[in-house]
Amino acid sequence: MEKSVPAKERLIKSKNSRMNGEARGRMLVTASALIMIFATVAITIFLGSKGLQTFTKNGISPIEFITSTKWDPTNAESPLYGAFPFIFGSFAVTFLSALVAAPLGIGGAIFMTEIAPSWGRKVLQPVIELLVGIPSVVYGFIGLSVLVPFIRENVGGLGFSLLTGTIVLSIMILPTVTSIATDAMASLPTALREGSLALGATRWQTIRKVLIPAASPTLLTAVVLGMARAFGEALAVQMVIGNVRTLPSSIIDASATLTTIITLNMGHTTYGSIENNTLWSMGLLLLIMSFAFILVIRYLSARRKI
Amino acid sequence: MKNAKKISLLLILAALMVFSAACGGTSNTADPGTNGSSNTDTNGTATEKLSGSLVISGSSAMQPLVAAAAEEFMAKNPDVDVQVNAGGSGTGLSQVAEGSVDIGNSDVFAEEKEGIPADELVDHKVAVVGMAAAVNPNVGINDISKEDLIKVFTGEITNWKDLGGKDQKIVLVNRPDSSGTRATFVKYALDDKTPAEGVTEDSSNTVKKIISETEGAIGYLAFSYFTDDSVTPLSVDGVEPTDENVQKGKFPIWAYQHSYTKGEPNALAKAFIDYMMSDEIQTTLVKDQGYIPGSKMEVERDAQGNMK
């Protein structure tokens, strides 16, 4: 069969078909990329135009919006639009949960890669994957049913508090931190470990003085990614944080975050009203913050040496 | 090979179309009800042939009632497709005003919401919902004067023992600022006084759970949530929160459940609203779901809250 077709044509044909495949593949992936870029740009433009209306159309001062602590949008005589308590709440739960999740996650990663690579990984890996798979509403519901009464009885306050939100969020971001930290530790060259051990360092000295510093940019990236997730989480936090409009004065006080105020109020407000616009502005703030998180991650990855 | 190329092109085109359709969102559902055909007749529950589709959105509190009615309506009219979405009163009003749904449900008057052209919308009051302040059963009171209720919610009274109850700190459970339940409660129970800060939750079930589990908690719920002893509804000035007292105008905390249409409803929407208001639904579903039939009301109210 093959011999009946002259070599010249065969070659041309095969070249043709290869070119076709090339073009097709190229087209497919370019289209995917374009759709992704288009979606991101469209969301940014939409959120920007919606979120800025509060300041351009409704004449609320951006400074007041970000710094004022008084939030009373439904007051008929003098509505107040100060979102600072929610901005503060968002940052508070984010940093506090990172503070809890970072040592736990990095510790778990070291355990999995350095201390007990064989069985540690076998046990911890599925646990972490399971944690990722639990929907956030379930975290919230467990928080509401178990954690809130526990905090109320053992720590004090109402149970609905920054502390409860922090605990729920820490567990939620733990898998993110742990899995990226594990990859970071596992990707360190063996030569580092061997070199350090050969110089007479103990296992712990090797981990502390050699491995952690070497992996630190990626470990930080893991923490920042976890924080980005915590910052954007709405449902689980809403169920346990209490959603009050005042600034919390202690960790067992109820609080609110940008995301919880948006989810609580969005459905009740009418499109184009000031209330609705201020919620979009909060959304815009969240977007700006996630850009900031991405910038931090980029900066950290650029520092990575190994 | 040519074929494969065409298919891939098609796929990409299809993906783009799905994407742009998703972006366009509401535009292609602009008036799904216009293909509803029926003989123009005031009797919507009659057996004339109805067909087409109806999109309803709005108040999540009303969603179970309207969805249940829609199910029965579809059973009676097999050619009709009724879709009931819940998204909140604000969403319902916005969507009906811009014409993207046929009926928008709301638990507040359209006039009370900013940015809604209320004069373009036609109000159909399908039911009435009564609300009452609810307390944790352990606080030890079940009657409160309106004055004291206002003091409790504005934070002037902070311990139940001042009202003859147990020595427990008062814990407020609020609704979000823009919620219809909150607006109704603030207007008719608190005389427009702004409630003090407290735990804020949107869902009535969560509010009920919090009140029943937290010592000294007080919040407000629709009558339909007083099904067991886990929370105690408070009488106001000795008037018990019952359907009869609301119907007679004695108990002040109640609100209409509105179904709004843009202009006069088309045939299908009209048939559905008439069905909702028919005795068949009003005496069964409406009552079963804990609402008060609009037809039984002896008093009326306008958007400003004036009784008639």
Automatic annotation (TrEMBL), chain A:
Ranges in coiled-coil conformation: none
Pfam family, one: BPD_transp_1
GO aspect biological process, one term: phosphate ion transport
One GO MF term attached to the UniProt entry: phosphate transmembrane transporter activity
One annotated Gene Ontology cellular component of this protein: plasma membrane
Membrane spanning stretches: 27-47, 80-106, 127-151, 157-177, 210-231, 279-300
Cell membrane in keyword set: yes
Domain (ABC transmembrane type-1) ranges: 87-297
Keywords linked to the UniProt accession: Cell membrane, Membrane, Phosphate transport, Transmembrane, Transmembrane helix, Transport
Keyword Transmembrane helix belongs to the record: yes
InterPro entries: MetI-like, MetI-like_sf, Phosphate_PstC, Phosphate_Transport_Permease
Main location: membrane
Topology class, membrane: Multi-pass membrane protein
Subcellular location: Cell membrane
Source species, domain of life: Bacteria
PANTHER family in the record: ABC TRANSPORTER PERMEASE PROTEIN YQGH-RELATED (PTHR30425:SF2), PHOSPHATE TRANSPORT SYSTEM PERMEASE PROTEIN PST (PTHR30425)
Function text: Part of the binding-protein-dependent transport system for phosphate; probably responsible for the translocation of the substrate across the membrane.
Family: Belongs to the binding-protein-dependent transport system permease family. CysTW subfamily.
Name this protein carries in UniProt: Phosphate transport system permease protein
UniProt organism field: Mesobacillus subterraneus
Lineage of producing organism: Bacteria, Bacillati, Bacillota, Bacilli, Bacillales
From TrEMBL, chain B:
CDD domains in the record: PBP2_phosphate_like_1 (cd13653)
Domain PBP: 44-280
InterPro entries: PBP_domain, Phos-bd, Phosphate_ABC_transporter
Region span, Disordered: 27-46
Membrane topology: Lipid-anchor
GO molecular function: phosphate ion binding
Protein's UniProt name: Phosphate-binding protein
Organism, scientific name: Mesobacillus subterraneus
